Every structure is written in structure tokens, then in C-alpha cells.
Amino acid sequence: MAVSKRVKNAGVGGVEEGKAFLDSCTEKQRGGSKPENRGLLKKELNTYTWGDNLRIKPSVRYTEEEEPRDEDYLYCKECDYFFTDECEVHGPPSFISDSPAPLGASSRAQLTLPLGLEVRVSGIPGADLGVFNQDQRVPVGVHSVPYEGELTDEYEAIDSGYSWMVRRS
To answer: How far is CA 60 from CA 56, 63, 101, in A?
Structure first.
């Protein structure tokens, strides 16, 4: 096995210590060193770079965390706090599922509402309809899923107060 004469030490000793290490390696190749040092050679080889590439390159994988979007946040009413995974005080969110209803059914929005919720005229100026809790069956902090709708063209969506931009990724 050929050993390059150019060695750079990754440790504190610098190039001189690297040369001393190189000399001990060539001695071992000739059989001139003690057998108990062989384990040291294997360990030291992992900290030195041989050949033309003198830089030690640790294997590092970088991942870039995505910044949460506004629609990724949930709201804890009790804490008045937005969160992504779970509320720091109240833990993970609770979800209530829609009631089953056939696709394409008329008044599907009303048919799929979970028990305790109803659609009626909103008191918000300019808003048409809203979903309201009609009794105490839905506890504070429970989130309703999923949000469904019909595909529409851009101009109709602009006129509607109920449109969402859906992206495919």
C-alpha cells in the first residue's frame, strides 16, 4: 500500500505530529513496530486524510426547515395562542370529523356538519352564511375538519367571501 508523503493532522499537534504519524505507519508496513500499536493505527487513520485531498470532510447532512405558513397554524382559544403541533399548555388539538354524506348531494355542506353545528346567516357585515354551534356538544378548542368546496373559476372566487386557493405540490 502506497502512503502519500503529504499528511495534514486534524488534531492539535499540527503537521509535525502528522509527519511522526506517517513515519510510524511506514515502520508498521515494514514490520518494525510493536503489535500493540496496530489498534492505534486504525484509530488514527480515521482522523487523518491521505493523498491529494488534505481537507477532512465530516459527513454532514443539512436539512432546511420550512417556515410554517399561516394556514398551518391552529388556535388555542383558552391561551389566545397560535400553534402548529400542539398547545404548550393544553397539548395536541382535538378534531371533530364531518358526518358522512354522498358526494354530489344537494346541500352537502349542511349534511356533512358534525352534530351540534348548523349553517345560518352570519352577523358579520358582508358575510353570507356561517357555521355556528347550536348547543354545548362541541367543547372549546375542538377543530372541525375537513374543509371542502367546489372548484370554481378565478373570477367567481374573487366575488366570493368563501374561496380558498388550492395548490398541488
So the answer is: 12, 10, 50
